[in-house]
Design a protein that fits this description.
alpha/beta, Rossmann fold, N-(1-d-carboxylethyl)-l-norvaline Dehydrogenase, domain 2, eight-stranded mixed sheet, 8 strands, 49% helix, binds ligand FVH
Length: 293
Amino acid sequence: MTRNTVEKTSVTLLGLGAMGTALARAWLAAGHPLTVWNRTPARAAAVAAEGARVADSAAAAVAANPLVVVCLLDDASVGEALAGTDLAGRDLVNLTTCTPAQARARAEWARARGAGYLDGGIMAVPPMVGVPQAGGYVFYSGSREVFERHRETLAVPVGTTYVGQDAGFAALHDVALLSAMYGMFAGAAHAFALIRKEDIDPTSFAPLLADWLVAMAPAVHRTADRLRSGDYTEGVVSDLAMQVAGTPTFLSTAEQQGVSPELLGPYFALMRRRLAGGGGDEDLTGLIDLLVR
Ligand code: FVH
């Protein structure tokens, strides 16, 4: 009988909040030796019971393995946790949500301490971690070498999408997608508000709303094509002039239903501004240029 064991990369993980714990469990389940540290030691008990080695300080955890993953509350907590650790020769993978500027500064900070740096923006919530069919992934940016070196290990908890050497790009992609999500939630909130006082079952309305949002989502590909070509009028089906003409209907309906226009109003104001600037033959792509300062 031949022994066919593949040695799994050892991982150090700082941070055992909801996300850190989910990451820890995924690596442990896949057989990766794991050293963990958390500011509040009691939170390490659960993963210790599943096989994690608990370090008694962040410095000891960092010293344990070349691959150091941090998943903490914010950039300030990363600075606090890593102060006093020796990062020389380590590959630091930072999965803490931060701004692009913070990520770039943290990459410089790590480089000055002799560490490779990869930044990550997590596009998943904890229950999606370790569940491949859930579709979660992490945007990575920064050192391509660090990404390639640890690609397989990083792909254990959720998928990986590398978006470039600029350490700020992962955070930028993360925030851009989440911003679009909030826009979608804002639209859905307005829609539910419109039917709120009527004899319409929200649970019957929800599938109609979800299907409509899914049907409209591919419009982002046409927006991208127009941004690339610079021609905002080619093949336009629903032009801006027509859409602006329809906005009083939306605002009057909101008023009749007793719903505040505070979510829709700013978007309609942008539409009117673009129309006034001569964009009547375009679709809505020109609004993007009004937003960029
Ligand atoms: N949970 C989620 O749904 C989202 C999904 C998308 C990505 N986010 C980001 O992931 C980072 C960690 O989030 P989390 O859910 O694990 O957050 P918490 O459960 O609140 O745990 C926070 C951990 O950070 C530690 N911590 C806070 N401040 C410090 C500090 N000054 N020094 C050292 N550690 C610190 C905290 O430790 P403790 O309170 O247990 O002692 C937790 O380990 C985050 O960036 C999300 O935006 C999650």
